[in-house]
Automatic annotation (TrEMBL):
GO terms for molecular function: medium-chain fatty acid-CoA ligase activity. GO terms for biological process: fatty acid metabolic process. It comes from the Bacteria. Keywords: Ligase. The keyword Ligase applies. Residues 1-26 are annotated as: Disordered. This is Acyl-CoA synthetase (AMP-forming)/AMP-acid ligase II/pimeloyl-ACP methyl ester carboxylesterase. Residues 70-315 form the AB hydrolase-1 domain. Pfam families: Abhydrolase_1 (PF00561), AMP-binding (PF00501). It comes from Curtobacterium pusillum. PROSITE patterns: AMP_BINDING. Residues 365-743 form the AMP-dependent synthetase/ligase domain. Belongs to the ATP-dependent AMP-binding enzyme family. SUPFAM superfamilies: Acetyl-CoA synthetase-like, alpha/beta-Hydrolases.
């Protein structure tokens, strides 16, 4: 044993079967003896060893099915094969249902779980050889897929490198095959490796084991935690835990470092399909190890389970993900003939005008390109000439600093001239911009930036402060000048002014900008609002961003000479691409309801704008503050020819009220999402015409140019299981296809799969919204798929019932919540009252009766709240998932607090 381990670790004991444990079928348990080898025919001596493992072979035989291959699962430290119980169970469920049958073999490594206690230290090379000896004894034949976790991930990958004739794919959870020289090993391991603590923390006490169990997300049930403890009762059974920790190759001098290097090199040479699954909340296997694995396996599919941590197979649905992935890549144990190791990440896109084309065309113009209303000292106007020059200078400066095509640059800058110049400079040199707005909140923004793993951060002071305090990755560039102490504290290497000056010098010396990126190269990672779960990074290629620009120009006739007031950040950033003169109004971008009517009028005047784009929450406050408008303000708003509002449903009443402020404007409400900004469009007349229809939901109009809309019908369980259709009156998930639909989600293989499942179109996307098409080809949105209520009477989509309830006297907004088991859920209506109630509670009998009569569905309870919870970004979408949790709690006796 290495220094620091107590002698008690040298205890020996044979392998034994485990006691009855939750989730573990005794039929899976096997004891296998690997005979001794004397070494006379080559190789080292090897004593006889006894192993415990879990194996579904006998269960598959009882089902009468032959496996298509074997899934070889290897646990890490301090777990055991119990970690893979869901994988064994899922494999048998799929086989019993007629799916492909995979044999699962989950081993207990020597000195771990219920395998033999050898009393000897096992290095990494020993463990890889030991596993090979066991699979030889099992006469394991191909095809084999490896699945590992923690240091078992390294061991399984080492086995894969040594058995290329058997391995057809590799999969792994949080693990690492390389420790960079310029980064220390994670703090928890540094602490455990201290000589004075190693033995006490890992062997004499169960501290290391208990710490591992305590970081499960969610917390493990007591019986499950006890099952993990079962093989490690007493110090004599925990020697392997300490030995495993002691064997971590902390530096090049460690005895196991050469074997780790060998495995790392071998992994980079693997050309079989690969899947990397990750729990981002892991305090040991940090995301730098994921980056390293992804770099070594560039063809690998990656899925990050947001909210999950180190004990990933317990924290998330690893089993379902693995078997879905195997079904796609190895349907019968082998890759389909002619298949590549992975499916392409992006659809082919034809060459298109680069996003910065209008900047090049207008670079000699002194006409305004941008107007920044909230600039210090008053509105600031930036000409096309200045903007084009500044973009070139920043692009050249970034390239000179070492920013390369494909590098990720997180932009933590509020909308305005600096953000626009930096964004176009990055896109010009092929860097991938990461845009996650402050509307996500600090927690959501942290999750987004860390998940995107930027190489660089360009930010203003608030963003840089958050990056430093919360440990966001990336080298830092400040948009403002900072004193030296602040630069050091924030780890700022450069300022944007320095970068621009550097670029100007390089251009003056005759340096050329890098070659323009290809149309199918990634250009941006834009984060969703997070209104239906953790915000997802949406990857767009250059061609797809160009297609977004072209779709907007075609649909709304926006182009050179158009003045655009953009109260919605994506459209502010697209203004220069359209050649439009754009202005960002004076407002808090994290709170759209701060936009006032006077601020809009000032913006229209400053940019001589004829097009206004506002979120519904912003539009509502503009209408509410209209009394402050002067005659000049109203005259300015009278020059607007088009206003748009999108991001959440917009009522006819709100559009009509806005039209009174902009009487010469055509009012439109486009339907789209971060994954596709313009899918359908409807004007006020269309909304009014739809109001006379008996269709359920909100009419969002007809598909925009080059957009196809289809429906995946819902079954009785609320799932979109039917084939895609364009038949009218069929309710289901809305599926869109267009050249400007996003490329993929970033490191979210499972979401990518779900969003394209059954679409059969590389440009297609399952939106997660539910609705239907009518006989005129108009699309009606009825809610989100995850908010569909499955009652005993049938499926209930929420929007129609909410609209009918909102027509009741005394009701403001309404939200539908489903509580109870799927298939027998009860509908609960949660309403804001007019005037507003001061605290949440049960509705009065009269209001309850009126709501029930209007709803059109059976309502179990009616609750009132002062304000319905909404999403962070838009301040408009009712958070129905939160409502459901709250309603279930209060109706089961919980405290009547605000949702």
């Amino acid at each position: 044993m290495r220094s620091g381990l107590p002698r008690v670790a040298a205890a020996t004991a044979p392998a034994t079967p485990p006691p009855p444990l939750p989730g573990l079928d005794p039929a899976w348990s096997r004891l296998v003896t690997v005979p001794a080898r004397d070494g006379l025919t080559g190789g080292a001596d090897r004593p006889e060893r006894s192993w415990h493992l879990l194996d579904t072979a006998s269960s598959l035989a009882a089902l009468g099915v032959d496996p298509v291959g074997t899934l070889l699962c290897v646990h890490g430290n301090p777990t055991w094969s119990y970690l893979w119980r869901s994988v064994l169970r899922t494999s048998l469920e799929l086989a019993g249902a007629g799916g492909p049958a995979w044999r699962v073999v989950a081993v207990d490594q020597l000195d771990m779980g219920f395998s033999e206690r050898t009393g000897q230290q096992h290095g990494l090379a020993d463990r890889v050889r030991d596993l090979g000896a066991l699979t030889d004894e099992l006469e394991l034949s191909g095809p084999v897929v490896t699945l590992g976790h923690d240091w078992g991930g390294v061991v399984s990958l080492g086995w894969a490198v040594d058995h290329p004739d058997l391995v057809v794919a590799v999969t792994t959870c949080n693990t690492a095959v390389h420790q960079p020289d310029d980064a220390p090993i994670p703090a928890p391991l540094r602490l455990a490796l201290r000589p004075q603590l190693l033995g006490r923390a890992t062997v004499l006490t169960p501290a290391f084991l208990e710490t591992t169990l305590a970081i499960a997300h969610p917390r493990l049930d007591r019986p499950v935690a006890d099952a993990y403890r079962a093989p490690y009762r007493g110090a004599v059974r925990r020697g392997g835990i300490g030995g495993f920790v002691a064997d971590i190759p902390v530096d090049a001098a460690h005895p196991s470092a050469p074997e780790l290097d060998r495995i790392a090199a071998g992994v980079a040479a693997l050309d079989v399909p690969a899947l990397i699954m990750w729990g981002p909340r892991d305090p040991v296997f940090l995301e730098r190890y994921l980056d390293d694995l992804a770099e070594r396996l560039p063809h690998a599919d990656v899925h990050r389970f947001e909210g999950a941590g180190h004990l990933l197979p317990d924290d998330a649905d690893v089993a379902g993900t693995v078997f879905d992935w195997l079904g796609d890549h190895l349907p019968d144990g082998h890759a389909p003939a002619g298949a590549e190791p992975r499916l392409p990440e992006h659809a082919d896109t034809a060459p298109t005008r680069p996003l910065w084309a209008a900047l090049d065309e207008l670079r000699d113009s002194d006409e305004p390109a941008l107007v920044e209303m909230a600039a210090p000292g008053g509105p600031r106007t930036v000409s096309w000439r200045l903007l084009a020059r500044r973009v070139d200078e920043i692009a050249a400066g970034l390239a000179d600093l070492g920013v390369r095509a494909g590098d990720r640059v997180s932009l933590l800058v509020t909308p305005g001239a600096d953000l626009t110049a930096v964004l176009y400079a990055c896109i010009r040199i092929g860097a991938v911009v990461v845009v996650a707005d402050a509307g996500l909140g600090l927690r959501g923004l942290t999750r987004a930036v860390r998940g995107a793993r930027p190489d660089w951060i360009i930010g203003a002071l608030p963003g840089l402060g958050a990056a430093r305090a919360l440990g966001w990755p990336g080298r830092r560039i400040a948009t403002v000048a900072l004193p030296a102490p602040a630069r050091r504290a924030l780890r700022v290497e450069h300022t944007l002014l320095d970068v621009a000056r550097r670029g100007a010098r390089r251009l003056a010396e005759g340096a050329a900008l890098p070659a323009a990126p290809a149309s199918d190269a990634p250009a941006a990672v834009l984060f969703t609002s997070g209104s239906t779960g953790p915000a997802k990074g949406v990857v767009y290629t250059h061609g797809q961003l160009g297609a977004v620009r072209d779709a907007l120009a075609t649909q709304y006739d926006v182009g050179v000479g158009t003045g655009l007031v953009a109260g919605f950040a994506p459209f502010a950033l697209l203004g220069p691409a359209l050649g439009a003169r754009s202005v960002a109004p004076d407002m808090d971008v994290t709170a759209p309801r701060t936009l006032t009517a006077r601020a809009v009028a000032d913006s229209v005047t400053a940019a001589d704008a004829t097009v206004v784009f506002l979120s519904p929450a912003a539009l509502a406050n503009v209408v509410a503050t209209a009394s402050a408008l002067t005659d000049d303000d109203r005259a300015a708003l009278g020059r607007v020819r088009l206003f748009l509002s999108a991001g959440a449903p917009v009522s006819a009443a709100l559009l009509a009220a806005a039209t009174e402020l902009m009487p010469n404007a055509s009012a439109h409400t486009p339907y789209g999402m971060t994954e596709g900004l313009l899918m359908t469009d409807v004007d006020l007349d269309g909304v009014r015409a739809a109001a006379a229809s008996s269709d359920e939901g909100i009419c969002v109009g007809r598909p925009a140019a080059n957009v196809r809309v289809r429906i995946a019908p819902l079954d009785a369980g609320g799932l979109p299981t039917g084939g895609l259709t364009e038949e009218p009156g069929v309710t289901g998930e809305i599926v869109v296809a267009a050249p400007h639909v996003r490329d993929r989600y970033d490191r979210l293989w499972r979401q990518n799969r779900v969003s394209r499942l059954g679409v059969n179109d590389p440009r297609g996307h399952r939106t997660g919204d539910v609705g239907h098409l009518d006989a005129s080809g108009r699309l009606w949105v009825e809610g989100r798929l995850q908010h569909v209520v499955t009652t005993a009477d049938g499926v209930v989509t929420p929007v129609g019932a909410e609209q009918r309830i909102e027509a009741v006297d005394g009701v403001g907004r309404a939200g539908i919540a489903g509580i109870g088991p799927n298939g027998t859920q009860q509908v609960v209506a949660v309403v804001e009252t007019v005037p507003s109630t001061r605290r949440p509670g049960l509705a009065s009998p009269a209001l309850s009766a009126a709501v029930r009569a209007a709803a059109g569905v059976r309502v179990a309870a009616v609750l009132t709240v002062p304000v319905l919870p909404t999403d962070i970004r838009h301040n408009s979408k009712v958070d129905r998932a939160r409502l459901s949790r709250w309603a279930a709690s209060v109706l089961s006796g919980g405290r009547m607090v605000r949702p």
